[in-house]
Amino acid sequence: MSHHDSVRLRLHAIESLLREHQHWQNTAPDASVFDSTQPFCMDTLEPLEWLQWVLIPRMHQLIESQQPLPQSFAVAPYYEIALEAGHPFRAIILPELEQLDALFADVDD
């Protein structure tokens, strides 16, 4: 399986979890939230919104256009901090994000 295919499968798994646990939104946020200059749009989007509206579509866009994927990539550390220890979805999403990050560790793509 190609690196692109592995990433695509992991993105689908993350999306499925977001949907299954009712963290998937049917209405896109206002376009102005994407004008944020903060990492992860942390001043305009909730952490799980960023996955849906930024990470997943941008990665799919790179994959579909056969563009190179990031050489170094890690989102799980942000979510370890952004989602409080008591957040009910934290223990579910973190392993998936760690698996996504692992696909970008030492990649020569």
Task: Summarize it.
By secondary structure, this protein is an all-alpha fold. It contains four helices and no strands.
Report the strand count.
Answer: 0
Poorly predicted sequence stretches spanning 5 or more consecutive residues: none
Element order, helices and strands?
HHHH
The residue fraction in helices comes out at 40-55%
Which CATH architecture would you pick? Up-down Bundle
Radius of gyration from CA coordinates = 14 Å
Through-space gap between termini: 13 Å
Give me the CATH fold name: de novo design (two linked rop proteins)
Helical/strand content category:
mainly alpha
Account of the 3D structure:
- The protein has 109 residues and is mainly alpha-helical.
- It has one domain: YqcC-like (de novo design (two linked rop proteins)), CATH 1.20.1440.
- The protein is 51% helix and 0% strand.
- The protein has four helices and no strands.
- The model has no long low-confidence stretch (mean pLDDT 93).
Which features does this protein show?
globular; mainly alpha; 4 helices; de novo design (two linked rop proteins)
Outline the secondary-structure elements:
Elements: H1 3-20, H2 47-64, H3 76-82, H4 90-102
Helix pairs in contact: 1-2, 1-4
